[in-house]
Amino acid sequence: NSRGHLPYSRGASGGRDEKVSMENKELPKIKLYDTSAERQKIDQMADMYSLITTVQHLETAWTRDAVGEEKYTESCKKLISQFKTLKNGSTQLIPNVDKFITEYKMDCKAARHRLLRVGVPATVEYGAPKLTRQNSADDQKHVFEAVQTFITALNCLQLDMRDVDQLHPHLSDLMASLNKVKKLPENHVSRVKVKEWLIKLNEKPASYRLTDDELRQMSFDLQTAYDHWHRIYK
């Protein structure tokens, strides 16, 4: 009987030793890249994924009132700027960010809107919360600022400034100024026209130059917006 148990004992002991040996043995490493160029590509893709995810979390926090207006605006502007820099530097690897989001099944509707469609924080797109705006005692100051930003934007077009990276900041400032004026209706033509062009510019590469027709249309739309604005605050 004892002899009958010996092979079993050896087998059990050997199995345990083999299991311990397997546990202590390191798994083979999977190389994601072989060259520095391949590593740079992976880093760029990881940075893009991380940045989009961060914006999505920030937008969620804003809608849940978990972050203040000033902190949200500051953080969002910084992330949008970083996104544009990353996007411009990785056009060969990620020619279409929208397809990148779809391919990697990213659940980021808010970030997609903020980065790819509008390109400005929600506080600029929609204005400050109504309670804050209604309690503002500086409405005349905001009206004056809006007039100045309107004139600046129109002057840029008259000076034949066509590059997206030149025009977008002025449109962003104008949108922010309009949203500070509490009496301006949400659907007022001035706000609608400025937002339309803000979206159009954001969908173009930073190096894109407006064609003659686009420049003419943008000038016409902004002048129309200013004329409607002036009827209220002349």
Describe what this molecule looks like in 3D.
With 234 residues, the chain is an all-alpha fold. The chain folds into 2 domains: 41-125, Up-down Bundle (de novo design (two linked rop proteins)); 128-234, Vps28 C-terminal domain (Four Helix Bundle (Hemerythrin (Met), subunit A)). Helix content is 73%, strand content 0%. The protein contains 11 helices and no strands. It has helices at residues 2-24, 36-63, 69-89, 97-103, 109-118, 122-125, 130-134, 139-158, 164-180, 189-202, 212-233. α2 packs across α5 (109-118). The termini are far apart.
Rounded to the nearest angstrom, the distance between the terminal CA atoms is 110 Å
Question: What gyration radius follows from the Cα positions, in whole Å?
Answer: 28 Å
Instruction: Count the domains.
Output: 2
What proportion of the residues is helical, as a percent range?
over 70%
**CATH level-4 homologous superfamily of the largest domain:** Vps28 C-terminal domain
SSE order: HHHHHHHHHHH
Largest sheet: none
Rounded average pLDDT: 84
Short synopsis of the structure:
This is Vacuolar protein sorting-associated protein 28 homolog. The chain is 73% helix and 0% strand.
